[in-house]
Structures are given as structure tokens and as C-alpha cells.
Amino acid sequence: MPRPAPLLAALLAVAALIAVVALDSPGAESQAFAPRAIVPMVARDEGAAPPPPTPTPLPPTATATPRPSTPTPTAPAATPTSRPPTPTPTPQPSGVRLQGVNWYVDSLGNIWVVGLVINGLSTPVEFVEVSARFYGASGQLLATDWSFANITIIPAGGSSPFSVLLLNPPPGIVSVEALISDYDISSRLPITGLNATVTNVYRDSIGVLHVVGTVRNDSPTTYRFVEVYGAYVNSAGLVVRVDFDFATPSTLASGQQGTFELLFLSAPAGMESMNLLIWTEADR
What is the top-level taxon of the source organism (predicted)? Predict the structure, then answer.
């Protein structure tokens, strides 16, 4: 048989001792022994850990079924509209300057220097003085002369013809230089409202080119000493000839019309097919 555990043996010994004492005690005969139920002890190791509790199974956690993501509609990127490149404006020279300068010898041997004065300023200028220098073959200065621009008050952005005449020039002149030597900023208003119209161009029997036309005063001001200037410019942009004439009558009231006739002496062949520029001038 297996040996009782030490605790069980101790309990049995205590019970036997109690029984002996009871038998020896007075009045023991009248007491009946009441048996006690002995609960057997399960033998186990006192140092052993109690068995772990049996885990209660949990219901499985539902796993969410993945759904395909709905794509977010993306608006198509706007295609940029191509624009034509903006043309870069060609800068115009500023200041008062000369343009189309040319020179020639007339039938009397005199030298004419002709061209245009351009007012590139934002204000009118007046009394523009043009100087001419005449040089020999070796570059030495042989003669000089000067003249004013034909239009006294040149408006901002406007122009005027000019002519410098060298009478009885010295021999040996082979080149000419023209330059603006002086001008004033004008506080006066330019002449406006005189409108010239060319009505006929013809060459006479001795080769003189005639330019005939009318000039009308469309301003409210009466003008005196009304003049009309004309300049022929060739395909290279050079001024070939300049001429002028006083209107007939020379004083034009508001709404009045006069006539003019420009005479270009010794005009080169074909000049009538060149570009003709017209200006008007007067005194108030």
C-alpha cells in the first residue's frame, strides 16, 4: 500500500489520542463516541503551482472582406493654348536727327545738300539749324554752309525737309557731311489744318518737273504766307530734290482754298515715279 501522507498520519494520531483521553476521563462511560467522516486528502506536491485554468474559447473575429477601391475620377488637364509670339517692336532712334541726306551739283555748278529733319522728341522743336561741311579727296575741309529746316516748328514725331545751298563752291569737293548744329524746344503750337492735295505732275519741254495742286485751310485760324514744300525720295531712302512755292493767295482764311506749283529744275529722269512728300507752312 502507498504510504499515507504526513498530514493524514498526524490527523490519525490526534484522533487516537483523543479517544484514549476520553476513555480515561470520568463519565466517559455515559458518552457515546460520534464517528467523524474522514475526507481523504489528495496527495500533491505543496510546492507545485496550481494547474492553469482552461481558457474559454472566444468566437472568431469576423475579418472584413476587402473591397476594391473606387477610383476617383480625375479631370483631364487642360491643354494650354499656344499663342503666337508677341513681336518685339523695333526701337526708334530718339532725339532730333537727319535722315536721307544727299547732295548734287546743279546746272550752274552750285552744290545742294538736301535731306529730312526728324523730330524724335515728345515735344515740338523750332529753328532747327543744319550745317554742311565740304571735304576734298584727302579729307581736308574745303567749305561750310548752313540753313534752317524749312518747317519752323516741327511737331513731336514730325519731320521737315531742308536744303543747304553752297554758291560758287571751291574746286575739289568730293564728299559732304551734314549735321544738326542747333535747335530750340518750342513752347508754340505747330501749324495745323492746312491740307495740300497734288492734282497733276508733268515734265515740260525743257525737263522741268511741275507738281501742281491745291491747299485748303481747314482750321479756324487765318494763316498768312502759306507755303507748300515737296521732296522726292528714291527707293534707297535718299532725298533727291526739294522745292517750295507760296500759295496763291498766300493768306488763307478759315475754309479758304489756294493753289500751288512746285518747279523741280534739272530733275533726274524717272523722278516723277519716286515717292513725293508734302508739307505746309505758314505764319499766324
Answer: Bacteria
One-letter amino acid for residue 246 of the chain: F
pLDDT (0 to 100) of residue 157: 97
Class of domain 96-185: mainly beta
Q: What is the CATH number of domain 194-283?
A: 2.60.40.10
* Residue ranges covered by each domain of the chain: 96-185, 194-283
Q: Which of 116, 110, 98, 97 is nearest to 242 (CA)?
A: 116
- pLDDT tens digit sequence for 170-199: 999 999 999 999 999 999 999 999 999 999
Half-sphere exposure of 33 (CA within 13 A, CB side): 12
